[in-house]
Structure formats: structure tokens, C-alpha cells
Known about the structure:
By secondary structure, this protein is mainly α. The protein is built from 13 helices and no strands. Helix 7 runs parallel beside helix 9. The model has no long low-confidence stretch (mean pLDDT 93).
Amino acid sequence: LEKELENGSFDPARIRLRIFLSHCLGEFRLPTNIPTLVKAATLERDLAEVDVRLAALESLAKLTQNVGPEKARGDADLLDALLSISQLREDSPTLQHRNEIRSVAAYTLGVLGGPQALDRLAQMTLDSYTNSRFNAATGLARHGDPRAVHVLLQMLNPDDPMVVAGEKTAEARTNKRSLVMRNGIRAVEIFSQKRTGKELEELLLALEHIESTELPVAIKLQAKETLLKIR
């Protein structure tokens, strides 16, 4: 991958190869792969490299899990890169991909953990881009951080219009809401393994409400099963 990045070609075939190699590096338990993936995640000489950046960020999350977050946090450049990428913002319609890059960085920060990462995720729960907020809340929930709760409640609310903001069709809105709610329910289960008390009770009440809605049966069953596991 290092050689491909140095090659700098934007030929579609070379870009696809970089994406493939980025995904491959995350499958190993080798912290020595982190610097190369950080380079791929931060390099954007052309819009063609956007998908390489996304693949590298996803791979960094997987690699962090494989080597262990504590060991991955030993690479200071990784945290610095993720913090920097998480602040990447673009309102231009032609550069909206940067919002999604920021969102994936939030997910990777959640896997990495540590005080600085969690503090940044807490800030990102106020992000203007919904996917960034949801990934930030999911990352905080992974560590039992109560700063996730207000966004998790939004994710679990079947009537919240912001969950599907920006989706153009009824089908897209339905699919987005289902995905967000499923992720929210899973996040509550993870949160419950780390935290009890009134924050968890708020989330459990939201799960109870899901059972009485007109949502798809699969989502209602997931909410019910999660309640049974927790209680």
C-alpha cells in the first residue's frame, strides 16, 4: 500500500487496488500497519482518493480491535490523525464526502477510546451531520459514557425528523430510520454492560416505547430481546 500511495496514480484500477490493500491491512494483528493506514486515511490529492480514505479509516477501526485499543493508542500519530479528520468540515455540495469521512473517523475514535477520543466524541454529538452524531454516540456508548444518551434517545425515537433529514425518497427514509434504530438498540445493549442508573433507565423506556409503535416487526423484536437481556 505504501508504494501505491507513493505512486500517486488516480487511475480507477490503481484506486481500487489501494482500497483493497487498505482493507487487507486491517485484518492483521500488526500495529506496524498503523502508520501506512494513517497515511492513506489523510491523503487526498484528488477526489478519486476519497474512497481510499474511507477504506483506510474503516481498516484502522478493525486493526485497533485486532491489536487492542490500548496498544493502538500507543501510536500517537493515530489519535492525532483521527482528531484532525474528525474536525474536517465542508458545506460545499461538491465536497460533501468530507462529512462522511468525518463520520467514519468518529466511529474509529469510538473503537480507539481514551480520554481525548471520548471528549472529542462528546463534542461530535452536536455535529451538524447526522451520521457523525450517531457514530459519536455509538462510540461513547461502547465505553459506557453517559454523554451518549441524548443522541441515543434521538436514534431510538421513531418520530424524530432529524434522523432521516436529507433522504430524498420515502424508501430511503424508511431504510435510514430502520438502520439507525437497529444501531441505537445495539448501542443501548453495549452501554448497559458498562453503566446502570437513571441514564440507562431513560434508554430502556425508549426501548419499551418501540414495542408499541407501528415499526417493522424485526425492530420491535430486537428492542424486546434487548430489554429481556438487560433486565
